[in-house]
C-alpha cells in the first residue's frame, strides 16, 4: 500500500477558536460596516484574510527569540540575519525594516520620483500605493494568460517581454528607475514566475540600463514551482534555485511575514553598495539605525531561522499541498478559481461566481461578506476596492480579475479546516443566484482604501 501524504510537522501548542452563530455574524459584520478588516479576531472562526504574519513559528524560532541581542547598534542578531540573507539570497548588503511596506518605502525613497514609470507584473497594493504616492505610475506588463482563470499554464505570473520592451523603447530610461518582478505574483492569483522569464527580463533590462527589483515576499514558494514545473530544475535544490533567481536582480524587498514565517519583520537586499548607502539614510529616518531598522533582536533571530526553514523542500511541499487541497475541493464542486493553484492562497473568480451583481457594487467584496456570514470565514477582496481610484480621473478602477482571496497561514490550520472552508463556500455557491446586490462606498481613504473603507449594503 502506498503511504499517504502527511504534514512535515506535528502540533505542540493549540489556540481555541470560537464558533459563532449566524445572528452574531450578521450583527458583527454590520457593526464592521461590511469591511472584514474591521472584525475582531474572536469574531472569526477561520481567518484567511492574509498569510502575512499569521503563520506558526517553529520550536527553533521560539528558541532563537530567547537568544535575541537587544543592543541598539551592532547586535549579534543583526549579523546572524545578515549572514542568513547573504547565504540564501546572495545579496551582500541589506537593511532590516519592520515589514515589507516599510522596505518599499525606504527603497522607493531612493529610487522613485514624480513622473517615473515602474513596469512589473501586477504590482500588489502597497507597492502600487508607494509608487502612486510619489506621483509615479505603475505599469502592468503581466502576460495575458494570467487573466484566463481556466487556462492550465504553469507560470501565469510571467512578465510579457513585448509589453516590457514597449515601455522601455517608448520612454526615456531616466524615467524608469526599475522593473519590479513579484515572486510569486499575488494579484494574478499567487502565480509563479519562471526562471527563464526572470532571466529574460534581466537581460532585456540590462540592455536598457534598468534595475531589476524583486518583490520577494513569497520567493521560496516561487522556487518550489520552478523546481516542480520548469524543465531542468527537478534535481536542483530550493536554495540553489533561490540563489539563481536573485542573481538576476539588483535589489529585493522582503515582507518576512510570509516565506520567513515570522509575525513581524522585513528587509531590503542590495547588490550595489551606493544604492545601499543612499537607502541607509532613509532607513535611519523612517525605521531606525541600520543594524536594527525597526526590529528587535529577538525578531531578527527568528527571521534568520525562518529563512532557513522556509526554503526547506518538505515544508514547501506541505504548505503548497494544503493550498492545492482546498483548491481541488472547490474545483470539484464547480466553483471558478484561478488555476493552476497558487502558492499561498486560493483565488475565487467573483465575476463568474456572482454574475448578477453589478461591478459597481463590488462583486468580490460581496462574496467575501457572504462567506463570512455562511461560516465565520474571513477572506479578502482582491478586486475593484483594492484597485483604488485612478489618481488622475478619480474614477474607480475595475481590474480584469475580480477575486476573493483565501490566504492560508503557514503551519496553522489542518485539512479539516480546509474541508470546512470548502463546505461553506459550496453552500454560498448553491445559493448564488439569490445574491443580486452588493455594496456602495460610504467613506474611503484617498489611497489604500480597502483597509479602512466603510460600506453599506444595497437593498434589493
Helix and strand composition category:
alpha/beta
Strand order of the largest sheet: 2-8-7-6-5
CATH homologous superfamily of the largest domain - what is it? Type I PLP-dependent aspartate aminotransferase-like (Major domain)
- Tell me the strand percentage band: 5-15%
Corresponding CATH architecture of the largest domain: 3-Layer(aba) Sandwich
Radius of gyration: 21 Å
The fold-level CATH name of the largest domain is: Aspartate Aminotransferase, domain 2
How many domains? The number is 2
Oligomer: single chain
CATH class of the largest domain: Alpha Beta
Description:
- The chain is α/β, with parallel strands linked by helices and 460 residues long.
- It has two domains: 22-51 and 313-457, Alpha-Beta Complex (Aspartate Aminotransferase, domain 1); 59-310, Aspartate Aminotransferase, domain 2.
- 40% of the residues lie in helices and 13% in strands.
- The chain is built from 16 helices and 14 strands.
- It has helices spanning 22-31, 59-66, 76-89, 100-111, 125-133, 161-170, 195-208, 219-229, 238-247, 273-286, 297-310, 313-332, 350-353, 363-375, 384-387, 415-430; strands at residues 46-47, 93-97, 117-120, 137-140, 178-182, 211-215, 251-255, 266-270, 345-349, 377-378, 380-382, 403-407, 439-443, 454-457.
- The strands form five sheets. A five-stranded mixed beta sheet has the order 2-8-7-6-5, sandwiched between helices. It has a three-stranded antiparallel beta sheet with strand order 9-12-11.
- α7 (195-208) links the parallel β5 and β6 (211-215).
- α8 (219-229) packs across α9 and α14 (363-375) packs across α16 (415-430).
- It is globular and about 60 Å long.
- The N and C termini lie far apart (56 Å).
- The model has no long low-confidence stretch (mean pLDDT 96).
